[in-house]
Every structure is written in structure tokens, then in C-alpha cells.
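User: Please fill in residues for this 281-position structure.
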């Protein structure tokens, strides 16, 4: 596990170097996929770098920007990497800085390790089931360094908010359903603070204890959530399928995710189920 996590961290940081270089150049060469989602040369460059590292592990890769094997082949994979080389491409194009590199290791359908790297703030989240989750801000020289210097990482959660109940949601994909669910949260918890940010940073905010709930009542794909789920769950948080009320699982026949909710320590399991059941479609 230690060597696999190290490989994923190196891959994410090296991909981050390429992403930042393109980000600063503003030469994105943006295209659009069949689903109208944007694709830049940063997405492609990050994918190629990550693939180069992960192929050395002899573990198959499911990447947003790679070839997607059919389920008849994938269902035999006991382990796989799930990768989003650049999560938050819309935020990348808008130049908000709220985009990430996501790499997760899946075993028997569930995340056992994950890396989320935020290139603009040089912030690295990582974790595994054996040791928990951690956060570190890399040295200012990280773009020139050949190795990733992990010194004094902070174990997650860092702090649990004692003030208003805090909801985190998508800056680019705030659905009407999510707004309706937030109204239910207000009835339950009174005054709430609302934090709107992009990419898998939302999940990391739950993992570090700086937000209490992240409801995603809209479409996402497996590569959008796998690494974040690893970080959150290894920090002791819960990542719940809206419909089944169970842990999210991966490498499914259908790569499109169900709705989900990520919750921190303030929200008890029974409370969460009650909140979901109050929602009117």
C-alpha cells in the first residue's frame, strides 16, 4: 500500500506541474466532448503523465481521458486505479484555481487509497485505509523538486466546526434539487453557512472538518468522486449513496454515479436518512 500510494502521489504532483504550466500560459486549446463538457490540453497532458506512472504498478486504469474498457472486462478487475487527470475543467478555464488531480485505488469495488492534489495552492490530500488521511501544503519549490517532500502532514480531520452548520456545494453545478435539500437542512439545523467551491475540493472540505455536509443531487461520474471518497472515508467521514443509503461502490457497469451525500461527524446516520426521506421529488 505504501509504495502504491507513493506512486499515486508522485503521479498527481507531476501532473500538477504540467497543468500549472498550461494554466499560466492561458493557451488551453479547449475542445468539447460529445456530452458538451470541455477538454483542454492540460487534461490530456495530465492524463499522459499519470498513465506513465500508474502503468508501472500493473494495475489497470480507468481514467476519464483514457480508453474505457467494457464491463465484461472490467468486472474481473479486483484492483484498479480510477483517475480524473483534471477535475474541474470549467474552473480551470475560468481561472478560479479550484481544480484538482484525482487518483484513487479501488479494491473489490471500494476505495482503499486516494490522492487529491490542488496545483494552484500546492495542497496535497492523501490517505489509505491503514493510516488515515492527511493534508500538506508542498514547499514553494515543488515545481522544481524531483521528489515530493512530505514533512509534518496534518492528519484529517483537522478541526470540527463549532459554529453554524456548514454546507458545501458545487460552484458550477448547483441544481434546484440541491437548493431544495438545503432548505430542509435549514429547517433542521437553523442558521447555516454555505460554501460554494469547485471540483473534489468539496469532498476534501468534509474530510478536513471545515464543512459538515456535501449533497450532490446531480450527475457525476466515477472518476469525479473515487479519490475524494477515499480521502473522506479514511478520515472517518461517510460517503452515502442517496438511494441505497449505503457506501458508494465503484467499477460498476454504469459509470454514471447516483446522487450522493458526504457527511462529517456532526450528522448522525439516522439523521441523514431522515433528511433524505424528507426530500420531495
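Assistant: Residues filled in for all 281 positions:
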Amino acid at each position: 500500500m505504501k509504495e502504491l500510494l507513493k506512486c499515486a502521489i508522485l503521479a498527481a504532483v507531476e501532473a500538477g506541474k504540467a497543468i500549472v504550466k498550461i494554466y499560466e500560459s492561458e493557451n488551453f486549446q479547449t475542445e468539447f466532448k460529445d456530452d458538451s463538457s470541455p477538454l483542454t490540453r492540460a487534461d490530456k497532458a495530465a492524463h499522459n503523465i499519470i498513465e506513465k506512472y500508474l502503468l508501472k504498478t500493473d494495475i489497470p486504469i480507468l481514467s476519464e481521458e483514457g480508453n474505457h474498457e467494457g464491463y465484461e472486462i472490467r468486472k474481473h478487475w479486483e484492483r484498479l486505479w480510477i483517475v480524473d487527470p483534471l477535475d474541474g475543467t470549467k474552473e480551470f478555464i475560468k481561472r478560479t484555481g479550484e481544480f484538482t488531480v484525482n487518483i484513487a485505488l479501488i479494491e473489490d469495488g471500494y476505495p482503499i487509497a486516494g490522492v487529491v492534489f490542488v496545483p494552484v495552492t500546492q495542497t496535497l490530500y492523501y490517505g489509505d485505509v491503514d493510516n488515515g488521511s492527511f493534508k500538506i501544503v508542498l514547499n514553494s519549490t515543488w515545481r522544481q523538486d524531483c521528489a515530493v517532500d512530505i514533512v509534518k502532514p496534518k492528519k484529517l480531520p483537522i478541526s470540527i466546526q463549532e459554529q453554524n452548520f456548514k454546507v458545501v456545494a458545487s460552484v458550477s453545478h448547483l441544481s434546484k434539487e440541491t437548493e431544495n435539500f438545503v432548505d430542509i437542512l435549514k429547517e433542521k439545523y437553523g442558521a447555516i453557512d454555505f460554501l460554494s467551491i469547485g471540483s473534489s475540493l468539496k469532498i476534501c472540505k468534509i474530510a478536513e472538518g471545515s464543512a459538515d455536509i456535501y449533497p450532490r443531487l446531480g450527475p457525476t461520474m466515477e472518476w469525479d468522486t473515487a479519490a475524494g471518497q477515499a480521502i473522506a472515508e479514511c478520515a472517518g467521514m461517510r460517503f452515502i449513496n442517496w438511494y441505497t443509503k449505503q457506501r458508494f461502490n465503484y467499477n460498476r457497469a454504469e459509470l454514471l454515479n447516483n446522487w450522493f451525500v458526504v457527511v462529517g461527524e456532526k450528522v448522525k446516520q439516522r439523521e441523514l436518512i431522515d433528511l433524505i426521506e424528507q426530500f420531495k421529488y
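For context: Helices lie at 2-25, 41-54, 71-74, 89-94, 176-189, 201-207, 222-234, 269-278.
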